[in-house]
Write a structure and sequence with these properties.
heterodimer; A: alpha+beta; D-amino Acid Aminotransferase, Chain A, domain 1; five-stranded antiparallel beta sheet; four-stranded parallel beta sheet; globular; B: mainly alpha; 2 domains; 3% strand
Chain lengths: 322, 72
């Protein structure tokens, strides 16, 4: 039986893993947002499930190995333009909830397989994770969720402060431009523009860092990279403001064993066997945990550090299929 | 299909009219040019250049880099 891979079409890292699967002569089916579920047949209580996606009929019962990377498949929808009325809005909301329930149930069923990640575990709450990390003994930045300038000024009295989305950044990519929501330091100049009231926002103390770490966690193994982003004003607060003229220096890094044990505990409690973890190292050589992204990039760590994660993931997918 | 000017106007309008709704990270977001379309395609791999190896070696590793570094 082929392995099942669920990803988005433009994820190069998935393609790199697929290339390894080809090379290792292992069969797989890759589904994406352009894959359309045409037929579903799911019988209870025996849980006999077949779905017809694209040109494949998948017997989910005989499936052994699943890699959930990103995205999801689509349902077979009729597409028509309708005038937005209250009834149309509510009807589509109803449809969305129905679909969500179906996808949740299907991915929940897939949890019983040999999994590398799962859609239902792919969205973690930053605040919940920060609190959990803190309870495990990881250091986290002092944080506030507030919606008034007064509270913000109060939080800023003795420290530099950044803001970032509570969940995912805005993802609007056009052809030659995009609209990023970077992690931003609230400067005095920006503070003057801030209205007295605003939407509920996450603020954190800005950590004066020596360097930052991007850690890929793969079923108990750690693949870490130090990013020397603090030496460049452009990348100091958010390294994703890539400086292509003078790129940050990235080097392989070994985490202290105590930190690895704490992160393993965190990942176990979150039921995650894969994740991309952001950590800062401050001037006192303390490790400050920022967040974990269950569907985070790994190519950006794999290539500069020669970790060859694409091959490792391909081999795990094959092993899971035995 | 995409209209940069119109998106800039729309973004400003959203920020102004829904100031009380959106978090501050949205207020500070702005329409930003992508240097080259290739940039998006190789964004996972761009960090190869971060090795700060000899530029010629960099080029031979990833020919896309030549597009990103037209002055090399």
């Amino acid at each position: 039986m082929a392995s099942l891979i669920i990803s988005i079409d433009q994820d190069d890292s998935t393609t790199d893993v697929c290339k390894w699967l080809f090379f290792l002569d292992s069969k797989f089916i890759r589904l994406s947002e352009s894959s359309i579920v045409k037929n579903v047949n799911w019988g209870f209580p025996k849980n006999k499930i077949t779905i017809e996606v694209d040109q494949f009929t998948l017997d989910l019962n005989s499936l052994k190995s699943v890699w959930y990377r990103r995205g999801n498949w689509r349902s077979n929808h009729q597409e028509k333009q309708l005038n937005p009325t209250a009834l149309v809005d509510e009807s589509f909301k109803f449809l969305e909830y129905e679909e969500r329930a179906f996808k949740y149930a299907l991915h929940d069923f897939l949890k019983s397989k040999n999994n590398l990640s799962n859609y239902n575990l792919s969205k973690v709450n930053k605040i919940e994770v920060l609190n959990l990390a803190s309870s495990i003994g990881l250091k986290i930045p002092e944080s506030r969720i507030i919606n008034s300038k007064k509270a913000l000024i109060n939080f800023m009295t003795d420290k530099r402060v950044i803001t970032k989305p509570l969940e995912n950044p805005l993802e609007y990519y056009a052809d030659t431009y995009w609209i990023p929501t970077y992690t931003e330091e609230i400067t005095d100049e920006m503070l003057r523009e801030v209205p007295n009231k605003f939407g509920v926002s996450l603020f954190q103390e800005l950590i004066e860092k020596k360097y930052e770490l991007r850690v890929v966690y793969l079923e108990g193994d750690f693949f870490s990279m130090a990013i020397f982003s603090q030496l460049d004003n452009q990348t100091e607060v958010d390294f994703r403001r890539y400086n292509h003229e003078s790129p940050n220096r990235n080097v392989p890094y070994k985490l202290p064993i105590v930190l690895e044990l704490k992160i393993t505990q965190l990942m176990n409690e979150l039921e995650l066997n894969f994740g991309s973890i952001d950590i800062l190292v401050n001037c006192l050589d303390e490790y400050i945990f920022l967040e974990v992204n269950p569907i985070g990039q790994f190519g950006m760590t794999s290539f500069p550090c020669n970790y060859n994660l694409e091959k490792k993931i391909a081999k795990k997918i094959i092993r899971n299929n035995v | 299909m995409f209209d940069k000017k119109s998106d800039e106007v729309q973004l400003l309008k959203l920020k102004k009219e829904f100031e009380l709704n959106f978090p501050l990270s949205f207020k500070f977001s702005r329409v930003t040019d992508i240097k080259d379309k290739t940039l998006r395609l190789v964004k996972d791999r761009i960090t190869i250049s971060s090795l700060q190896v000899n530029k010629t070696i960099r080029k031979s590793f990833y020919k896309e880099i030549t597009i990103l570094y037209p002055n090399d």
